[in-house]
Amino acid sequence: MSVYRPSLVHLARGFSSISKMSSVSQTVPFSSIIIEEDRHPDYDPRKYYPARIGEAISKQYRLVAKLGWGANSTVWLAKDITRWAWQSKRYVTLKITNSGKNEQMSAQEEVAISQHISRQSDHKGQAYIRLVKESFQIRGPFGEHMCLVFEPLREPLWLFGRHLGHHGVPSAVLKPVLKLLLQGLDFLHSECHIIHTDLKSDNFLVGFEDPAVLESYVRQQERDPAPYKLDDNHFIFQSRQDFGPLRKGLGTVKISDFSAAVFGNVSTPHNHDIQPRPFCAPEVLLRAPWSYGVDIWNLGTALWELLADTTLFNGQDPRTNEYSREAHLAQMIRLLGPPPSQLLEKVNTTVFSELFSVQGEFKFPHLIPSEEFNLDRLTPFLHGEDKRLFLEFAKRMLQWDPEQRSTAKDLSNDPWLTYKP
């Protein structure tokens, strides 16, 4: 599941007074203008679990606040109400998946991936992976829903930059964070043989720098619960993602959301569609077999999102002002040159005939941007030697041929990550 940025964050805090309310409507204000999961084009209220603030899930987790939503789930902060009075409070992030066979299967696969990762050796990168702590099923009006329990984290890394007054994460902050994320990615690839397939700034989550941040958030939700609206008797709550200003430093950063992850050590090559469009690796666009290299490409494209909250490849077709695969590939050709023959030989035959001539020439040269579309101009947020080293770092990931991309382990020692302007 990819959680949508308008309601992105994944974690939060706990409750007491709301747990005593007899009905949501007595405490929570009503609003008809909330923009949440019901605005998604494939929204089906019968599939989403009708969770309510104050509800006790499985008699253990009382919902405190909604943290976000995706096409196949909603995400909540919950308080463990089974703790004894002398025990410290415990809060969790609870992901409630939609009902339906495909959604249930996806959740079960995410649990299996987490269990596999947790059994691997004591690699230092393991500390930077967010895993499912437990899972269980609950019954909704129209079917079963899987609930996945995670440790609570503060927010996505891209949002962290906003606290510092930037439209991205400053490079001095991002560099040490990237070293940790690369250790986590190396652990996934080399020890766990897992391909994440959805590495983007939304899925790099920052932990709480101080437990008091979480407690303050919970008290705020008690005083001012999030508003909701009704859709055919289905409660839709507004997401509350703002945990307030930073109090000190940066919490631990972790790679999250393994709902689309797959094993890399399989006999049959992967070639199904993965990745959001802006981050899509060329082999995925071309329906060629793909492996661990798609994660490296993802990370390379995500650098621009992390540093400047911008997109390297938007794939916007000038003919329609909408995304097209042809325009996306044209942008890649302008930045990287024509795709090599060793990649084209692996392309799906139907896709190849749609995009290339028999000689391997791109059929849409008119879509290739002007020479002003280059990495130097697309990186105005860095300067001098810092910029030069950054672009060399990015080029190690942004290669047509997956075999030519650097591994996560090699990238963690790149000179840009230790350079101080």
From TrEMBL:
GO CC aspect terms: cytoplasm; nucleus
Keyword Transcription part of the UniProt annotation: no
A Pfam cross-reference name: Pkinase
EC number: 2.7.11.1
Domain of life: Eukaryota
Keywords for this protein: ATP-binding, Kinase, Nucleotide-binding, Serine/threonine-protein kinase, Transferase
Reactions catalysed: L-seryl-[protein] + ATP = O-phospho-L-seryl-[protein] + ADP + H(+); L-threonyl-[protein] + ATP = O-phospho-L-threonyl-[protein] + ADP + H(+)
Biological process (GO), any one: spliceosomal complex assembly
Gene Ontology molecular functions: ATP binding; protein serine/threonine kinase activity
Domain Protein kinase: 61-417
Protein name from the UniProt record: non-specific serine/threonine protein kinase
Organism classification: Eukaryota, Fungi, Dikarya, Ascomycota, Pezizomycotina
